[in-house]
């Protein structure tokens, strides 16, 4: 194969991997702004989720939305790992390994009850979408901006799953950035597991959120 062929193939692979994001103008949104704001305000974290779970196409659609998060210099400093089915037990094994290592460092010993509870944590939803950072060196984009971009991607992901009729809960916990868990997700020492987004269908209805008093949270200057 010629060098030109290699370049052409690599270019095609890059094109194939590009996100097919649909651009929707503001005046194309069928809901009124008040309805949309109300819908966003209705978001609630829902634990212990069941089937049905989002399909691969629905998950990919949600990740496309996640990838539209504010991203200075378009570094895309986040990655998504989808865990479902039997792979949830493998994640449970990684969590148990992390818990044991953490306990050893702290001079503690895990009970069988704690080990079992830790191993079954990933079974609280049919699908878990783990969001990890992939920090990049850039003189104009410090690490904290890249971390915030990952957080914005998580929020977009959650709202996109909600839009498709699925409940979510954003979990992390004390074990998410222990070495055994980072190794499981192939996360480097300077990167982070920022979210375990559990998703599926909740057997319960979302409870209404009490109004939030934003006055102590904001300051207007002019």
TrEMBL record:
GO MF annotation list: oxidoreductase activity
The coenzyme or cofactor needed here is: FMN
> Is the keyword Flavoprotein assigned to this protein?
yes
Q: How is the cofactor bound?
A: Binds 1 FMN per subunit.
InterPro entries cross-referenced by the UniProt entry = NAD(P)H_nitroreductase, Nitroreductase, Nitroreductase-like, YdjA-like
Keywords from UniProt, A to Z, are: Flavoprotein, FMN, NAD, NADP, Oxidoreductase
Q: Which domain of life is it from?
A: Bacteria
Q: Which Pfam families match?
A: Nitroreductase (PF00881)
> Which E.C. number(s) belong to this protein?
1.-.-.-
Q: Where along this sequence does the record place binding of FMN?
A: 43-45, 72, 170-172
Q: Which residues form the Nitroreductase domain?
A: 40-200
PANTHER family, per the entry: NAD(P)H NITROREDUCTASE YDJA-RELATED (PTHR43821)
Family per record: Belongs to the nitroreductase family.
What name goes with this protein? Answer: Putative NAD(P)H nitroreductase
Source organism: Psychrobacter piscatorii
Q: Supply the source organism's classification.
A: Bacteria, Pseudomonadati, Pseudomonadota, Gammaproteobacteria, Moraxellales
